[in-house]
Design brief:
Strands 3-2-1-4-5-6-10 form a seven-stranded parallel β-sheet, with helices on both faces. α1 packs across α6, α2 packs across α3 and α3 packs parallel to α4. The protein has a single domain, classed as Rossmann fold (3-Layer(aba) Sandwich). About 35% of the residues lie in helices and about 15% in strands. It has nine helices and eleven strands. By secondary structure, the chain is α/β, with parallel strands linked by helices.
């Protein structure tokens, strides 16, 4: 299969490209500073690049997270995705696999499933991120075959949650909370494995996260211990309603995806 890998120089893209090649796929990497250098905000340039590549599938792993600017990442999700999807449809691409997130669901008591609605009525600053996720997913669903990978919070080498990552630095400065908010986490290697497998999955949204949603009061101290930085004091109080984690039941039971690190406990130990 001829695959256009958008975001080929990112944390996931760098790991995904050689695995795709090893499976016999022809991979063309697209990124601002990638093998196929394109600014995804340049609509005409994106259209020309996709038309020239003529891929069978597009793997959308574009993010703008290196600076921690969530507004910039939201703009990429909205505008960059729109340009990429329009270019893919014009070029006759049938399958698009795109990266999304597993913490955009509306408030609830239990870990979210794929049937739960997104939190479209969230207040700012959350609204900016959720609205951008909704725009990304809506655009991708215009493809004849589409898969949205709702990743949990990524950790592991080159992510924010690495031994030398941004969150370890913030934790060392006392700027990370250990509160009641629940997250679902995901080792970067498991995110890559899901993106690879998704080339054969049926259309739909899929929660891609580990088996153990947990409050920050539990997992943040474990991360800090793995990163060798002081853990913050546990913050008392109720969790935000939307901070509920997500269930990977569908991916595990119906798609056959099994994370190498089923719990952040084992994953942090391997940092």
């Amino acid at each position: 299969m001829r695959i256009l890998l958008a975001g080929s120089t990112g944390v996931i893209g760098r790991r995904l490209a050689p695995l795709l090649t090893a499976q016999g796929h022809e991979v063309v990497g697209l990124a601002r500073n990638g093998p196929l250098a394109v600014d995804v905000f340049d609509r005409d340039a994106v259209a020309a690049a996709v038309r020239d590549v003529r891929p069978d599938a597009v793997l959308h792993q574009l993010t703008s997270l290196s600076t921690g600017d969530r507004a910039a990442n939201a703009r990429l999700r909205r505008v960059g995705t729109r340009n990429l999807v329009d270019a893919a449809l014009a070029a006759g691409v049938r399958r698009i696999v795109a990266q999304s997130i597993a913490w955009a669901y509306e408030p609830g008591a239990e870990p979210a499933t794929e049937e739960d609605p997104l939190d479209l009525h969230a207040a700012e600053p959350r609204q900016t991120s959720v609205a951008a996720v909704a725009a990304l997913e809506s655009a991708v669903q215009e493809a004849p075959e589409w898969i949205v990978l709702r990743y949990g919070t990524l950790y592991g080498p080159d992510t924010w949650y690495a031994r030398d990552g941004q969150m370890a630095q913030l934790a060392a400065a006392g700027k990370v909370l250990a509160d009641a908010d629940v997250s679902s986490l995901l080792h970067v290697d498991d995110a890559v494995a899901a993106a690879l497998a998704a080339l054969d999955w049926p259309s739909g949204a899929v929660n891609v996260c580990d088996d153990e949603p947990a409050p920050a009061a539990e997992w943040v101290p474990a991360f800090c211990a793995a990163a060798g930085v002081p853990a913050p004091a546990v913050t008392e109080g109720e969790r935000h309603g939307w901070a509920r984690g997500a269930s990977n039941h569908y991916a595990r039971k119906h798609l056959g995806w099994t994370p190498k690190y089923p719990s952040w406990r084992a994953g942090f130990a391997a940092l």
